[in-house]
Amino acid sequence: MAVPKSKISRAKRGTRRSADAIKSDAYVEDKDSGELRRPHHIDLKTGMYRGRQILEPKEEF
Length: 61
Known about the structure:
Order of helices and strands: HEEEE
Radius of gyration: 21 Å
Structural class: alpha+beta
Low-confidence stretches: none
Shape: rod-shaped
Number of strands: 4
C-alpha cells in the first residue's frame, strides 16, 4: 500500500485544492458586433481582434 513519505501541510493541501474553486469561463460583449466572446480571443463572427481584421468574416447561411 502506498504511504506518504511525509505529512502534507495545510498550505500545500490548500494550494492543491484551490483549483476546485476555479470559476467558469469569462465572456465579454464585443464593442462592434455586440456578440459575446472570450477576452483576448478573435471574434469569429467578424474576424476582428483588437481593431484589426485577422480572419475573413464567416458567411451566414
